[in-house]
Amino acid sequence: MRGPAATTDAVTPAQPARSMPDVAGDALPQARALDGVGMAGIALPVRLPGGLVVPASVDVEVDLADAGARGIHMSRLYLHLQHALAGDVLAPARMRGLLGELVASQQGLSTRARLVVRYDHLLLRPALASGHSGWKRYPVVMSAEGTGRDGTVSVSVGIDYSSTCPASAALSRQLNAEGFTQAFGSATPLSTGAVAQWLASPAGLAATPHAQRSRCDATVVLADDAGDWPVEAWVDAIESALGTPVQAAVKREDEQAFARLNAENLMFCEDAARRVADALAGLPGVARFEVAVAHFESLHAHDAVARVASHAPSTPAP
Q: What is this structure's pTM?
């Protein structure tokens, strides 16, 4: 019988490099430099100070300073960020360094870069009275723009809170006072028990002031020597200034405590903007700030908004 066929290691001849089309060098129909070219909404992991890795949405752009070039090397931006953001701690200094590295990746096509990182910062917040705790989400946007070491780094954080209208509170108190007069105007002497019973009944609450969930977006431009972005410290300062941050874990005693806080912190949108500005003005590492608040009105079909910056324009807008 014949045995199995002999086997030999076949040697595959080297294949010539495959030629692939590249239209980047084609003639331009219009030659013009561009302020920004890049990608938006890249899904990447980001390593924050402290070692926490979070899923993020990243935007990256470089300018196209060479008017005669058709485009940038976009894949180089993606590959560089994919390795850098997963491996390096994204402190302010590292973000400035990335600007220079992104510009260098373009080999003379670009002079500036812009990097934006968005993620949700989770904080465990204690309830007001019950002893429970609950997680709250704070959207954070870290941005850097410039050529490298001279780049500007800023951080924005969004905070939800409750706002009760001072005017509506005054009008409600008036109706409550009128209801009290009607109920006890001729009663002499007044019985404390009867008054307390009336106040605790539906008749004792003729009107309630309108309140609504509201939003504060605070943007901080970091000082050049800032080594970190202490998001939790900024959130604590802003929520303390507002007095009525929305709650996570809520039992009846927490809801009652929240109602008390709203009564103690009546505010228009103008009041809220000033409170937050005062809080940010006293924080270390803050070079400049801008605050925008929006009260999502329960009375009106539109929102009430206010803005304030640490450096107001020298001349009023026309």
A: 0.85
